[in-house]
Write a structure and sequence with these properties.
Length: about 625
C-alpha cells in the first residue's frame, strides 16, 4: 500500500531509534523461539516478526506474547482473519463507508488512517461490512505493513447519527475493537474524533470506553478539526480535511483496490493455523470473553443510542490538556498508578471485581495522584456502599417522586470554566412546601454523585452554587433532618470530589442558622471555601457568564431545559445503575477495623448536630 524510499525508510528507523544490528539479532531469536514452539505454525509470513517487534517497541517478551495471542485468536475466531468477498448489497454499503491510510507518513514516521461515513443514510450502514473491512485492514497491517513509527487515526463523526451508532455499536463491534487492541501490534500515537456534533458527544464518550486506559488518554474529541490539524501535517490529510493528499473518494477507492489485490495472500494466510493443541492455560486466558468481561463498561449495559440526549459536559482537547497540566499529571506515571491500583483492588478480597476501571481514574485525579488517599477513598466507597445500601440504591425511575424533582434542581453546566471546573447549580424553582421532600432530593443528588464517581468526563474539580431565593422558613425546617446530615457527610467521605468553592447566593436572613448548622457538617478545608451573600455579585465575578444559566442572567442553558436533559440521561443509564447496585463488597471479608473506621454511625451519633436540635 505504501512504498517508501530508502532515504525515508532510514529516516523512520532513526526516528524510532531502531538499531539494525540489534533488530536483526532479535528477529533471529524470534525465529528460533517459534521453531521451538509446538503449536505455533511454521508456515507464517516472516515479515510479521518485524512488524510485531516494532509494534512492541523491541521488547522481546511482549512480542512473543502478542504472537501467541495472534495465533490463538486466529484459531478461535478464524473469520476475523480471513479474506472477505463483498456481494452487491455489501458493495453498496461500502459506498457509504470509507477507511484508508494516507500515502505519506508524518515527520515522526506515523501512518495516518481516516474513517467515517459519507452520508447519514442508515440504509447504507451495514455493520458486517464495517467489521469485514476493519478485520482485513488489521490483518494486512499485522503481516504486510512497511516500516513506520505507529498509527494515528482520524474518525469523522459528522454523519454518525444516533441511528447509525445504534446499528454499529454492538457486541461484534466491541469484540473487534478489543481484539485489535489485544492481538495486533499497533502503536497508537493518537485518535482524533472530529466534527462531533453535540448530540454525538455521548456516543463518542461511549466509544472511548471500549479502549484501554493508555489509548483512551490519546483520544481527542472536538466539534471541528482545528486541534487535529495542528497535530497532523496537511500532506497526510485528504482535501476534505484541508489537506493535500487527494480526496476521500480517491483514497478509499485506492485502499479497497489494494486490499482486493491481496486475495491470494489472504487465502494462503488462512492455511497458517496452529498445529496440535494449544496449552490449556494459554487457551483459557486469551479469549475475548474475558476482555469484554467483568470490568467492561458495556458488559451488560443496554442503551438506546437513538435516545441519548446531548447532556455530557463539553470538553475540548485543549481544555483536557490544560486540566492535566494544571493537575501536574504525568501520563506515564498516571498509567503506572492505575495499573498499581488494579493490582491492589484485585488483592483485596472484599472489593468486588466488577468495578468500572474508569472510576480508578476519577478517584486518582480527585485525590491529586496521592495513592494512599485514593485507596482510602475507594475503601470508603465500597464499605459505605455496604453500610448504607439505601443511599446507593437506585429506585426505578417510574417510582421517583417527580413532583418534588420538578421543583428541585441539581445540575452541572454544559461548559467548564477556563480552569476546567464544573459548575453545579442547586435550589428550588418556586416556594412549594408540598414538593420539599428531603429524601427524594438527596436520592437524586446521590444518583448524580454515583454517576460522577464512575462515568463522568475529565474536570479539575467542582464549584457549587446553592440558590436560596425561594427558601421559605417552613421549607428550611423541613430540610433540617438527620437525612441531610448523612448525605453531606457521606458525600465528603465517600466520593472523589474536589471542591473549589461553594457559593450560597440570595440567602435570606432567616436562613442564617440553617446555613451555619449545615456548615458544621463540612470539614474545615471545605468550610473555609463557603461564600454566603444576599445577592449574587461575588458568584458572578468568579464564574464565567457562559457557565451561568440564563435564569441568573448568564448565557448558559435555562434550568428547565437542563432538568429535562439530565433526567433523560439518567433514565437511559438506568440499566447501568441497576447493575452497579449489585457491585457490593463481601461484608464478611471486610476487616473489622476498616468496617468500624468507615462507619458513619459516629457521624450520625451522639455528637450529631441534629440529635437534640430543636428549632421553631
Amino acid at each position: 500500500m505504501l512504498c517508501l524510499s530508502k532515504e525515508k525508510t532510514l529516516k523512520i528507523a532513526t526516528a524510532i531509534q531502531e538499531d539494525e544490528k540489534r533488530f536483526q539479532h532479535y528477529l533471529k531469536l524470534l525465529e528460533e523461539w517459534i521453531s521451538c514452539h509446538g503449536f505455533i505454525p511454521q508456515n507464517y509470513d516472516k515479515r510479521m516478526l518485524a512488524i510485531f517487534l516494532r509494534g512492541c517497541k523491541y521488547n522481546l517478551e511482549k512480542t512473543k506474547n502478542k504472537l501467541e495471542l495472534y495465533f490463538v485468536y486466529k484459531k478461535r475466531y478464524p473469520e476475523a482473519f480471513g479474506f472477505h468477498y463483498f456481494n452487491a448489497q455489501e458493495r453498496k454499503a461500502l459506498d457509504n463507508i470509507y477507511l484508508f491510510e494516507s500515502k505519506h507518513v508524518t515527520t515522526e514516521g506515523y501512518r495516518v488512517g481516516c474513517a467515517g461515513f459519507r452520508s447519514s443514510d442508515t440504509s447504507g450502514c451495514d455493520m458486517s461490512v464495517l467489521t469485514k473491512l476493519l478485520s482485513m485492514f488489521a490483518t494486512y497491517k499485522a503481516n504486510l505493513d512497511g516500516i513506520n513509527a505507529g498509527l494515528t487515526m482520524v474518525s469523522n463523526f459528522s454523519n454518525l447519527t444516533p441511528a447509525i451508532a445504534a446499528s454499529i455499536i454492538n457486541t461484534t463491534f466491541k469484540q473487534l475493537l478489543v481484539m485489535i487492541q489485544t492481538v495486533y501490534p499497533f502503536r497508537i500515537k493518537g485518535i482524533y474524533f472530529i466534527y462531533v456534533p453535540s448530540y454525538a458527544v455521548p456516543i463518542a464518550n461511549m466509544v472511548k470506553l471500549l479502549f484501554n486506559e493508555k489509548i483512551r488518554n490519546k483520544i481527542n474529541i472536538e466539534a471541528g478539526d482545528d486541534y487535529m490539524k495542528k497535530c497532523i501535517p496537511s500532506n497526510c490529510l485528504p482535501k476534505e480535511y484541508g489537506g493535500t493528499d487527494g480526496t476521500i473518494a480517491e483514497n478509499a477507492k485506492n485502499f479497497m483496490e489494494s486490499l482486493q489485490s491481496t486475495e491470494a495472500w489472504f487465502l494462503e494466510h488462512a492455511k497458517v493455523q496452529i498445529v496440535g493443541n494449544i496449552p490449556k492455560e494459554l487457551y483459557t486466558t486469551n479469549g475475548i470473553d474475558e476482555d469484554l468481561g467483568t470490568q467492561g463498561s458495556f458488559r451488560k449495559l443496554d442503551i438506546d443510542f437513538t435516545m441519548i440526549p446531548s447532556t455530557f459536559c463539553e470538553l475540548t482537547p485543549e481544555q483536557a490538556k490544560k486540566i492535566k497540566r494544571n493537575l501536574n499529571e504525568d501520563e506515564d506515571r498516571f498509567i503506572s498508578q492505575i495499573e498499581t491500583l488494579k493490582i491492589w483492588m484485585d488483592r483485596h478480597p472484599f472489593i468486588p471485581k466488577q468495578y468500572e476501571v474508569e472510576m480508578l481514574e476519577i478517584f486518582l485525579r480527585a485525590c491529586k495522584y496521592d495513592m494512599e488517599a485514593t485507596k482510602q477513598k475507594l475503601e470508603n466507597y465500597f464499605v459505605n456502599k455496604t453500610k448504607c445500601p439505601e443511599s446507593f440504591k437506585v429506585y426505578s425511575f417510574e417510582e421517583i417522586d417527580w413532583e418534588t424533582l420538578k421543583n428541585f434542581y441539581f445540575l452541572a453546566s454544559r461548559k467548564l470554566t477556563p480552569e476546567g471546573y464544573k459548575v453545579t447549580f442547586a435550589g428550588f424553582r418556586e416556594v412549594n412546601i408540598n414538593s420539599c421532600n428531603i429524601e427524594v432530593m438527596c436520592k437524586f443528588i446521590w444518583i448524580s454523585a454515583i454517576y460522577k464517581a464512575n462515568l463522568s468526563t475529565l474536570d479539575a474539580g467542582n464549584v457549587l452554587v446553592i440558590n436560596m431565593n425561594v427558601f421559605s422558613p417552613t421549607m428550611v425546617v423541613q430540610l433540617m433532618t438527620p437525612f441531610l446530615k448523612q448525605t453531606v457527610k457521606l458525600l465528603q467521605t465517600t466520593f472523589p470530589f474536589r471542591t473549589k468553592q461553594i457559593f450560597i447566593i440570595n440567602a435570606p436572613g432567616y436562613a442564617e442558622n440553617f446555613i451555619n448548622v449545615c456548615k458544621m457538617f463540612l470539614n474545615d478545608k471545605i468550610k473555609n471555601r463557603v461564600i454566603i451573600e444576599a445577592g449574587d455579585d461575588k458568584m458572578k465575578a468568579s464564574i464565567p457568564n457562559y457557565c451561568i444559566p440564563s435564569d441568573f442572567g448568564g448565557t448558559g442553558d435555562a434550568i428547565s431545559d437542563r432538568i429535562q436533559e439530565w433526567f433523560s440521561l439518567l433514565k437511559h443509564y438506568e440499566p447501568w445503575f441497576k447493575q452497579h447496585e449489585k457491585v457490593i463488597p463481601l461484608i464478611d471479608k471486610i476487616p473489622k477495623e476498616l468496617f468500624a473506621s468507615s462507619s458513619i454511625d459516629d457521624e450520625m451519633g451522639t455528637q450529631g448536630s441534629f440529635r437534640q436540635l430543636s428549632i421553631d
